Amino acid sequence: MNRAPAAALLSALVFPGVGHFYLRRPRRAWLFLVPALIAAVIWFGDVATQVSTILDQVTSGALAPVPVAIAAKLEKQGGGSPLVPLAEIVFGVCWVGAIIDAFVIGQKSR
């Protein structure tokens, strides 16, 4: 397989920046990997907090263990941290940017 599509697929399917490691461009890889990793940690931390809150309410009996009731509670509860939308944007930009950049670098290094 040509290096450009392989690098782009690695960045697309594994994690942003992995394709750059494949192309032996570690500095460039870290430019995509670190912000994407920080964004993922923020997002997963927020999800874990919301899950913990709902689980506490279900185990205490304050919330029925019915998917419809849980979904209604999550919708009423709203979003968690105000950083989550920013984290989602950062992750998306890193993901798309890493795919495009890995492909372009792979094409140039033929």
UniProtKB/TrEMBL annotation:
<protein>
    <recommendedName>
        <fullName>DUF5683 domain-containing protein</fullName>
    </recommendedName>
</protein>
<feature type="transmembrane region" description="Helical">
    <location>
        <begin position="83"/>
        <end position="105"/>
    </location>
</feature>
<keyword id="KW-0472">Membrane</keyword>
<keyword id="KW-0812">Transmembrane</keyword>
<feature type="transmembrane region" description="Helical">
    <location>
        <begin position="30"/>
        <end position="48"/>
    </location>
</feature>
<keyword id="KW-1133">Transmembrane helix</keyword>
<feature type="transmembrane region" description="Helical">
    <location>
        <begin position="6"/>
        <end position="23"/>
    </location>
</feature>
